[in-house]
Amino acid sequence: MDLSPKISIIIPVYNSPYLEECIKSCYGQSIGRNLIEIIIVNDASNNYTKKELIELENRYDIQIIHLAQNSGPANARNIGMQSAKGNYITFLDSDDMMKSDKLEKQCNFLSNNNDIDI
């Protein structure tokens, strides 16, 4: 039995005030918590974000990668992808939230359209 997450959610972060809301929207997915992993890449935030991430890591099952130097969201996403264990990868900006059925709809679409190669 494969117990790895089905979907890896990569969240690049730089000085974001909405981290907990973003995480909660990921865990509120209709597919269930056990089918996702959340990887947050702190792109060298220079405010309270690092401290907040440490506190959130104690409350949520999330993986956090702290970068020493700011290199932009594209690089942060690429670094997050290197740690991903899911069958699928999706990106979410740290100031965004997912609707509760987003991942379910996307997985159903991909399952019903095997000719799609993305």
Q: Which properties best describe this structure?
A:
118 residues; alpha/beta; 4 strands; globular; 4 helices; 19% strand
Give the radius of gyration: 14 Å
Q: Stretches where pLDDT falls below 50 for ≥5 residues? A: none
Helix/strand order, N-terminal first: EHEHEHEH
Strand order of the largest sheet: 3-2-1-4
Number of strands: 4
Write down the overall mean pLDDT: 93
Strand content: 15-25%
Counted by DSSP, the helix tally is 4
In helices, the fraction of residues equals 25-40%
Distance between the termini: 26 Å
Structural class: alpha/beta
The biggest sheet, with number of strands, parallel, antiparallel or mixed sense and barrel status, is: 4 strands, parallel
Mass-distribution shape: globular
Secondary structure blueprint with pairings:
Blueprint: E1 7-13, H1 19-27, E2 36-42, H2 49-59, E3 62-66, H3 73-83, E4 88-91, H4 102-112
Parallel strand pairs: 1-2, 1-4, 2-3
